[in-house]
Amino acid sequence: MSKDTQKRTVGRLKNRPQFLAVRDGEKRRGPLFLLEVLDRRQPDSEPRVGFTVTKKQGNAVERNRMKRRLREAVRQKAGSAMKNGHDYVIVARREILTASFAEMTSALSERLESKPKNKRSEGTRSRKA
Length: 129
What we know:
tRNA processing; 5 strands; hydrolase; Ribosomal Protein S5, domain 2
């Protein structure tokens, strides 16, 4: 591989405390998956990613297929869009099984590059006057 086409390696989240820490970060929702992002404030460390599929999404074969598709999408396309010093958890939804690979990778890249939406302040949280 030449230098300009070289893919960046992405670390993995491997244990429960790492996954739980990312839940405190920002959430970016989409139709195929939920992306949770946490800035570890360590800009010199590589980005890390973890994958979650709940039992509600299907049997073991389907859940493993979802995780394999997401891992490959991160390996091929989205790893370069991940920021150093950040942790990412991708929570798959069942729709990821029927989505095309191109649709899935574009949604992942879009979620990685999007900014979080501002939350409502406590004063404007209620819709009732």
